[in-house]
Fold this sequence. Notes:
2 helices; 9 strands; four-stranded antiparallel sheet
Amino acid sequence: MTQAPSRGPKVSTTSLLLRPKDSQSQAGFTLIESLIVATIIAIMAAIALPSWLGFLDQRRVNMTQDMVYQALRSTQQDASQNLQSQQFSLRERNNRIEWASHPASVSAIQASHWTPLIEGVRLASEDNTLPKKAGLHYATFDHRGNTTSLGRVTIVGSGGRTSHRCVVVSTLLGAMRRGQGQTKPNSDGRYCY
Length: 193
């Protein structure tokens, strides 16, 4: 007895209709899935962006505080090394803070070299107690590095009072320190200490 050759397994017509013709037609995302993912990413970015911008602003303020501190120290050292009175001058010009170190015998207006600080940082409207003359804050150091210009320079970015940073010239011997903004004033009524 010979058997008739087999023509393969029997396939029903319903299984052919349910099976995709091309396996690649199922790959990728649908438009709705893509919109959902884009919406989730936009929501996460909207939540994270203010924090990131606040972080960058505070970093600029901190860096500017360090630059002011170093500029004051440098002026004090120049006075001691050159054995002459030296003046640190600070001004706000074109929405940017600039500083200069020059001999005290030269007027700050005549100072030739002004160094700009970081853009986006300005002098705070309060707590700037460093002496001021002709619209410029200044500190003068004698040939020993001592000063009679006691006070503080307070800088701020776009944040609130707690984002303030200050540099304080605190003793006649020219001692300086850095401070930060607080929510409550100290005994002197200053918020940056």
